[in-house]
Amino acid sequence: MIQNSELILNPDGSVYHLNLLPEHIAHDIIFVGDQNRVEKITQFFDSIEYSTQKREFKTQTGIYKGKRISVMSTGIGPDNIDIVVNELDALVNIDLKTREPKENLTSLNIIRIGTSGSLQADIPVDSFVMSKFGLGLDNMLRSYLIDEVSNQEIENAFVSQTNWDIRKGRPYAIACSEKLEKLIESNKIFKGITATAGGFYGPQGRVLRLNIQDEELNSKMDSFKFEDNRITNLEMETAAIYGLSALLGHNALSLNAIIANRASGTFSEDPYKAVDELITYTLNKLAAK
Questions:
Q1: What is the CATH number of the domain that holds 32?
Q2: The domain containing residue 261 runs over which residues?
């Protein structure tokens, strides 16, 4: 039995942070960062059956072309992903009344839809990027036993090629779900490694008033390569989503609409159009599943 202090429930029996009961979520779930983006996706739904919000965690569940889908905002950062994925797993794989794990476990399909800037000159604005791997620079997942799901060859190559200061913690690399990769991929989608930072400023190489540990890290990431995989973009959630999903037995995939290209200095003339196209492309793939 899982103690009350370990799995915290609200008075109505819902999980503490997400404010959800098991019947409130579908098995196909789309993650967004910003709570205001939830309705940018559910505006395409035929109907919405449930909606709730607590703090930055907003959830709407509805029907798109006959498919039941949930859309959820996670907020920013790996620490929020730790909350969201663990509580989603509790909703489907723990009996919230007896507080015991279920014998028959459920695998959720989790797809993150975001926006990002490309690090590579040949990945143009308005294109889509699929994260073949998430490369965690944040340390959150190191609180768990991850050796069985992490790719240590990529980790070793990254540490060596970037002269990574191990005092910041060892990076971790996790692959996306092969099932969702096959469902979503097309010849129009670029694939690569998405680096996940634990912060927005120093951890992503931005300098305001504080000096950072490695001023050359971004350029090192631009040139990093492992076999046919490059680092395509840098954000704050993907590796954590991949790691927790792999550990808990869920399928996870991260997609980004590229609205800027840092190498060429270009920005999309209509970023909203690019995002809407990625949303409808993903929804149609899920609905056809």
A1: 3.40.50.1580
A2: 26-285
Q: DSSP for 66-115?
A: TEEEEEEE--SSHHHHHHHHHHHHHHHHEETTTTEE-SS----EEEEEEE
* Overall pTM surpassing 0.90 (yes/no): yes
Q: Which residue is listed with tokens 């980004």?
A: 256
pLDDT digits (tens, 9 = 90+) for 160-173: 999 999 999 999 99
**Number of domains the chain contains:** 1
How sure is the predictor about 149, in pLDDT bands with cuts at 50, 70 and 90?
very high
Cα–Cα distance measured from residue 132 to residue 64, given in angstroms and rounded to the nearest whole number: 26
- Of residues 7, 253, 231, the one with CA closest to residue 108: 253
Residue 211 falls inside a structural domain: yes
Instruction: Please choose, from the candidates 96, 132, 92, 131, the residue with its C-alpha nearest in 3D space to the C-alpha of residue 108.
Output: 92
Query: Which backbone phi and psi does 30 adopt, to 5 degrees?
Result: -105, 130
At residue 57, what are phi and psi to the nearest 5 degrees? -95, 100
| Identity of the amino acid at 109 | N
On whether residue 263 sits in a domain, the answer given is: yes
